[in-house]
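Q: Structure for this?
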Amino acid sequence: MGRQVAIVSAGFSEHASKRSDVSMPELVNEAIMDCLKKVPSVDPNKDIDAFVNGNMPAFEGANIPELWMTDWMGARNKPLMRVTTGGTTGGTVAIAGYYNVTAGLPGIDTVLAIAFEQQSQGDTATGLASVAYGEISILNTLGISYETLGRLLSAGAAIGVAAYQATNYMSKARITEEDLARVVVHNRRMAAKNWWAHLRMPNLTIEEVLDTPYVQYPLRYGMLCPASDGACAMLFTTEEKAKDMCDIPVYVNGVASVANETAVLGYDGSGSAQVDPSAQIGAMRSSELAYAQAGISFPRKEIDYAEVYSPFPNQELMWLEKLGLFEETTAPQMYENGTIALDGDLPVNCSGGVNSTNAIGASAMERPAVAAQQIMGTADNQVKKTVHTSIGHGWGGSLNLCTLMVMSDEPQRKWR
Amino acid sequence: MEKVGIVGFNQVKLYSDANYGRYEMIFEAVRGAIDKAGLKKKDITTVISCTNDYYDGRTISNCWTVEVGGGYLADESKCEMDGAHAVLYGLMRILSGNHKLAVIWGGSMPSCYPYHSARLYETDPTWERPLGYVNDITAGGFQMRAYMEKFGVSKEEIARIAVKNRKNAAKNPLALAESQNANITVQDVLNSDVYSDPVTELMVAQPCDGVAALLLAPERQALKITDNPVWITGVGYSQDTYYLGERDLSVSKSMEIASKTALNAAGIKNPKNEIDVAELFEAYAHEELIFTEALGLAEKGKAASFNSEINGELAINPSGGAIGGNPPCATGLIRIIEAAKQLRGEANGYQVKGAKKAIASGQIGMCAQNNILFVLEGNV
């Protein structure tokens, strides 16, 4: 059986649209240094036993960048594993960090997990275009011309699929663009109190968001996440060692990464298609798995804080429902009545979320990292209530893959 | 470390140009492994895939393989290294107690992309890539030269490894047809085209199309699923530094560290006597010699005189090794599968008699920067 795993520290680099002052390895190093400076008793040379790393390699034009970054991470002559799954890469890296520790392989107790992205090095939209398609040859066989494919491409990348999802969700929940803008305002105002966040707008209003042009109905320019450069690092270790390293270790009690069918557009070589991209069976299944591991039966009552992965505002509403925190279609009300605010009953995305900071490879790791910091009481935008249990969520693939990490200030065995 | 069982595996035939879809190939491998083990899709709790976005020419290359790889609504992830590293992640997931059956698959189709150009994207983008002077092929040349100069090993001795592996591959029906040659001579290898002096074409493990899949289960479940599981009893992996100038290319430090960890975990004191068969991922013929020394099977510089034939002192790469076919992202996984075949006595035509313990390795990076070694034991 696996061992109990604890998070002892999390660190971030500064995020901005162009971090041209640093190279990719230096950016990664910045996050690692921030992570390690919070645990002064850890000697990076002696105490870190293994590394897990990941990003979305297509964006920067560097394949398996860990190879040449080795020394910037301090991984020379140590075990290193690279995992990557697109938008969920960060979540996947954090989960792999958990599995590295829990497996109990000889000599591996403390693991440094690092996720990063320096999008200014390449072109993200080009990199994402090939995700939205199925196999081009298969689409051709079905009689879809290159011309039509070109139009699909413009609907492709992340915004194309997110717009489908947004309209589906809006019609189900019967909400307006104003409700979407409210989510954006919450995120950007929260980001203003977070030192590493990218879009910090303390005085943003709903009117200002609605005053920006459409990119694709119903999503306006002011509602979209930025493209950031940034990195995040987390330190995982065993329960015993964690107690010596920090005051309040955060125990990882449940993890899951579940993929639904890939096809979104309705015709494809690999599936019969998700009819409703806001149905998100993958998210529901991942929460089922992770909550069961953590012994959570009533997520709404037992979870004190949630960080969800929402580059687009409609997704934040959708995830909160799909992850069992609110009843279906009720999330927009929670934004209206302040349940999700900093001093609310169930605060959400007080880091500013992905909507304010999106270094894609790192984003899904920043969610569990902030959720862990909220339990430790060291988050930059610390919530008012005491957080005992929190979740960090990630989303990626072609709308279909979800990662989830459930953390608590008490070890898993107590509740299972 | 608790024992974890290999309960099934499957590999598609390797082709230089398979001429059928990547997804069909993945399906064939994964479905075959599950069918052979007498299991069903619903039994799968976790899937670890191994692909590379650059090799597959698309972002999130595991995105469209969810269904064919058995990942639909299962806990899935991707390891972007060698297939052997994906097995490591699968192993960790089984050891965690969260999962009871892990599917690990890996593979790629280099017939659809220029493999060596894709590998160029692995180099340092600021200092090395613009010149293109340091790449995976020239690095192989540097490594072979360093090994020859330091220990006074001749080209002929290295060519002999290529000859052995290509002759072994001829006995392996799944090996790449172009690599199979029962009548090859040392002269043939030395006279083939120069890749990067002193490496010649026939010393190179040629990239080819292929996918392989492997199933892992905890000890208790493994014994229920099959009568002859193969046990993973040790694993070690390590990453060397990147810059070739900072490394001693005539040895493999990462393999030395990896083998020490793995052999210790499995309680093996004297690998030369205790191990019966080794399947090593040698990207070039000379790497097999370097690894043989790093594993402690031969003294430094003396691996060339070590008898590694199928009926020799210790059989190395009886299946033909990576020289018998090198599908990127699957090669290390195939090494583990071949070692498991030997332990189950299923290696028809290239079986090592009475094989009880085996080692299998995987690698990534230039001059095998990151190595991983597994110790496997048969079910006795």
